Predict the structure.
Amino acid sequence: MITELEMGKGESELELGLGLSLGGGTGAKIGGKSGGGAWGERGRLLTAKDFPSVGSKRAADSSSHAGSSPPRSSSQVVGWPPIGSHRMNSLVNNQATKSAREEEEAGKKKVNDDHQQPKDVTKKVNGKVQLGFIKVNMDGVAIGRKVDLNAHSSYENLAQTLEDMFFRTNPGTIGLTGQFTKPLRLLDGSSEFVLTYEDKEGDWMLVGDVPWRMFITSVKRLRVMKTSEANGLAARHQEPKERQRNQPA
Amino acid sequence: MALRLPSKVLKHILSFIDSNEDRNSVSLVCKSWFETERKTRKRVFVGNCYAVTPAAVARRFPAMRSLTLKGKPHFADYNLVPDGWGGYACPWIESMAAKSPYLEEIRLKRMVVTDDCLERIAASFKNFKVLVLTSCEGFSTDGIAAIASTCRNLRVLELRECIVEDLGGDWLSYFPETSTSLVSLDFSCLDSEVKISDLERLVSRSPNLKSLKLNPAVTLDGLVSILRRAPQLTELGTGSFAAELKPEAFTKLSKAFSNCKQLQSLSGLWDVLPEYLPALYSVCPGLTSLNLSYATVRMPDLVELLRRCSKLQKLWVMDLIEDKGLEAVASYCKELRELRVFPSEPDLDATNIPVTEQGLVYVSKGCRKLESVLYFCVQFTNAALITIARKRPNLKCFRLCVIEPFAPDYKTNEPLDKGFKAIAEGCKDLRRLSVSGLLSDKAFKYIGKHAKKVRMLSIAFAGDSDLMLHHLLSGCESLKKLEIRDCPFGDTALLENAAKLETMRSLWMSSCFVSFGACKLLSQKMPRLNVEVIDEHPPKTRPESSPVERIYIYRTVAGPRMDTPEFVWTLHKNPEIGVSKLAIK
């Protein structure tokens, strides 16, 4: 059996370096005391403070999400609680059923245009199309992510999640681009990235052109594209965009 | 005097040995036993598809009739393994097609399977009988159609929780027009509708069909029609129960179920309305397995159902069962061996707590045969864990998921160390353990000391330091799979216990503090390990002391793999080469 301790001694340079970066708490000695030390700058481990106990989190959430957004699902921490994706999708669909039924009861009188929408939602929810996690890729980032559409109620909501996912270092996970950048505006074309999506017909479109409900029934996957590359898309859809702006609200 | 068994005799003896663990031991005795064993092994299990090459497996086991393969690490189920990581079935299928044409059964778990792959299976194995794909992805219903139409002797086709590109329900019509040899069909994970007439005809011409799991698109009417044609079913997964309540529908359903006198296992039940549950009452007394984990039914309807299931051995249910429902299970379901309680709300901060530790305590007290537990709840206590351990020392699998990370014993505010100590000490046959809640290094000291038979251990948000990992790696003798996320260590412990890793199938660590330098060191010292760094940023661009996002370490005789995507670095054992991508594409 290899004497593991000898390994460490041979590479003392490396070991010293490791010890330093880990901060005071975790020493290189196995016999040493344990204790949570200071962590390096690069990524911060989730600690109990990131999970205030049951009850208070609701309060925190409602202050940060103005308006009636549905409670965020555990997509805040990737893969927690450890529920398989099939089951997770089913849970989220159940929530959609609940809120759809509540909405139907709440808003009996609908404008003609909107008349379609409650039906759409219930049709979806009766098992035909299972929404849930869809893939999101970003230009220049190899690892794709998944985002849960059912946990979002609007484009702003979705953009916020994506910005958190790709641009900000969430506690516990190293931001996928490793940068601390200023808040992006993925939706208004003012940043170097735009949000696009592939619809059921395989076309790539700019996100934001259609009403949210219609968007979630037709989106297959998302892509955060460099604005420079998205110019073609923007141009093609300028007309519909103009048309939409001129329509009465 | 040398005693040698003639190989004929040895062959005969070995024909009684099914367990691969035993066969592995047999093959280590001497060369001739190795040879005889390998030539007679029919069922081959490869727990990590990258641990060995397909060619080596085919060469070693010429009599192979059944192959089981596992690909991605378990944490892939929770989206922790990025898409494109690997786990491709094709190289295996290609190799087997060429070298093991008599293969009859293929079971794949967490692998990427393409339509080409499925077509290859259909074309290459003349006597193909069994295809089971669990948590697989990468194929469409076209591939399934190929299997259905070409494999004339197909007995089992099961798609369990796969991600399938669903191009419609036509695939069902591709089964042979004459009678089929189907024994089991599971398409519960598919989305789109299948034609009921196709399904009816298939069932009618499959006299051996015993297990049928429908997808949610099959309506209640469809279900009734199927049950009428297949009253011999022993396992049934229903479609969706979402339908308007009609008295005739209820009567028809009731009657259909009462004719299924051999039904032992029931699942599906999506959107089941409580008013329909009584239709199931007639089959309850015979049920040994009931999966209500997709049924949003509440109390007391659940109890009305469960109190009739006196033979139940396996129960999967949502936390809507509440503690009082579990109390009822404890008193009615005395044969229970396996209990899984899943959360009904995906949110971390659900304020209504339907089940508490008390529910599991009830079941532990009342169900003497209980040996496997998966339990999600918001918080727990040491006292409950101690009681459970005392009452159920026969536990083999204990997976507790306290949903709130770092949640201490909510009555005493202490870590759950004492509780898990009791479990490790008391349940001497424990083979699988998942821990959660607030845990200090001490908990792991106890686990390392007592959990001598644990083979798979899952840990999240726990521990204080490298000591934790050290306790586990140096203590748990039978450890084969260790998966850890968000814990505060572990260069030192990893390097100190490097040799242990070669005795294990794999180690997964994500969002821990393993540095790139340690990974390099480890791979240099341990050439028979593949040390995979899964990280967005090329590790070379950062200081060696900086932590990597994810590592996956596994023993292998196949060397570093050639199919890694750009975000996976398999560290080469040659220090000069350093990080090798082996991108000879």
